[in-house]
Amino acid sequence: MDVTRNSEALGFSSSRLENITDWMKRYVDSGKISGAQTLVARSGEVVYSNWTGYADIERKINWQEDTIARFYSMTKPVTSVALMSLYEKGLFHLDDPIEEFIPAFKDMRVLRANAQSVEDTEPCTVKPTIHHLLTHCSGLTYDFNLGVLETLYGQEKMDFGPRRGTLEDQINLLGQFPLKFEPGSRWNYGVSTDVVGRLIEVISGKKLDHFLKETLFDPLEMTETAFEIAPENKSRLAASYTPDGRGKLRPVDDPEKSIFAAGTVQGLSGGGGLLSTIPDYLKFAEMIRLRGRCGKEQLLGSRTVDFMMQNHMPGDLASMGQAVFSEVSFAGVGFGLGGWVMLDPAKAQMMGSPGDFGWGGLASTVFWVDPLEDMVVLFATQLLPSSYYPIRKELRALVHQALID
After folding, report:
1. Would you say 128 and 181 are in contact if contact means Cβ atoms under 8 Å apart?
2. What digits encode the pLDDT tens for the residues 25-65?
3. Are 388 and 324 in contact (CB under 8 A)?
4. Going from the N-terminus, what domains does the chain have, and what CATH number goes with each?
5. What are phi and psi of 313, to 5 degrees?
6. Which pTM was predicted?
7. Which segments within 215-356 are labelled E, that is strand?
8. How many other CB atoms are there within 10 angstroms of residue 95's CB atom?
9. Are residues 364 and 38 in contact, defined by beta-carbon separation less than 8 angstroms?
10. By C-alpha distance, which of 123, 113, 110 is closest to 182?
């Protein structure tokens, strides 16, 4: 455990920060999660870093500072930043139709209102664009949010798992499916960022993993972040779990037989494929806090980062058809390019600051960057799915109650 000595000087109560420790231990001791890790930083200095519980219950391996976790959808902001680095080179416009780069998205069809089958479609009147992808307004969706598309997506296993086939093949197949709604008319969480990952490959001419490494991971010295787990790091990969319905945790992905094992990963999911550690992902979050800066280098323009962190919706997400997602209300919450944007904490009924930006992952991980408080918060555990407990809302309250300046 580490509570930085100068936490008081940085505006935090060291004793109040310990409420986070107690909270994590309650979750672990009650058997709701296997282990947990939280980090809070302000003005570039860590004011709180702690972890508890097991990374692997069956093998009695304790969670450690450098435990590797499946960050799943926390991949999305990374992929979005990578695409915007190409935007800065003038290689595309946000309103460009996807079909200009991926021909499989030509002549897209959309489900009719109140469609009762996947055949009940009509031609799209609006072509899905790159901006639609970055904001999840494309009409693409996920397999848990399909409606009548469930059978079609399920048959083809459109979850972009690491062993589902190459990214190119999966995206070309996706282009044959009807959209759930007319692009731009609603917000709907889905595989849009996986298409962003393929766009990066098409525009840059490089595989997604190579592009991320060259553009972000190497400059940020993110040596622990990748789409697969190296053999020498297997012992540090946490097991993932889901409740078994009888008060116990059932393993989902065993580190020794992980679907992310090196040499077995076929598809590179820009929407959910990255493994990382809290200290490693902190480097990415700090780059966002510093508006694109990494040391003396500017990885992304400061105005580009500001643009990504603005709300790109006409209102909040509740007004765009998504009142609640996971365990969080989306009233008072907007969406930028690749992550949420807090608009009104009182309306959202969650502690926060207007303008804070972040996202979470399927295994209940989360991060956010708060420009108003000059703060970064990260949390990791490995519980699937992330809708079981109100972890993210509670963490917001725990972090903000510790601020005393």
Report:
1. no
2. 999 999 999 999 999 999 999 999 999 999 999 999 999 99
3. no
4. 5-81+221-401 (3.40.710.10), 94-204 (1.20.58)
5. -95, 155
6. 0.96
7. 240-243, 249-253, 274-276, 293-294, 297-298, 324-325, 328-329, 333-335, 340-342
8. 10
9. no
10. 110
